[in-house]
Amino acid sequence: MTVSRRLREQVRQQAGDRCGYCLSHQKYVLGWLEIDHLVPQALGGTDNEDNLWLACRLCNSFKGKQTSAIDPRNGEMVLLFNPRTQNWHDHFKWDTSGTLIIGTTPIGRATVVALQLNNPLVVVVRQEWVTAGWHPPG
Asked: Is residue 72 part of a domain?
């Protein structure tokens, strides 16, 4: 199945035009934010609204078919952060420079690693966004 245009727009509005994982805003990324299947279709995920959220291309590609990952602190397998049902600030915070995402819970730490939320290319871009006053999001 494909996600209807109406449902895509509804998800976009619910997400506030931001990637659910790194919080990048649509107006600052190159290309369109994508519809992410929280549970990938390859693993039985549906096109229903409750399984959809916005993600930038990098986060979506790094996430791939993953739904869980290992917390680097305790070595336990945990579910990845779910931007539809969980609050970003309950699992992550920005470092003092505003360029690095710090996982504050097992879910947050595992998601930072699995989705490479602090990969060097993104950190360089975030530094420019901070300089321009566009980042971190409030």
From this structure: yes
* Residue 121 included in any domain: yes
Tens digits of residue pLDDT in 23-74: 999 999 988 999 999 999 999 999 999 999 999 999 999 999 999 999 999 9
Q: What is the DSSP letter of 15?
A: T
Domain span including residue 80: 5-132
Of 118, 23, 106, 31, nearest in space to 72 by CA: 106
Residue 137 lies in a domain: no
Is the pTM of the predicted complex or chain greater than 0.90?
Answer: yes
Tally the domains of the chain: 1
- CA-to-CA dists, residue 133 to 52, 101, 123, 126, angstroms: 30, 17, 15, 10
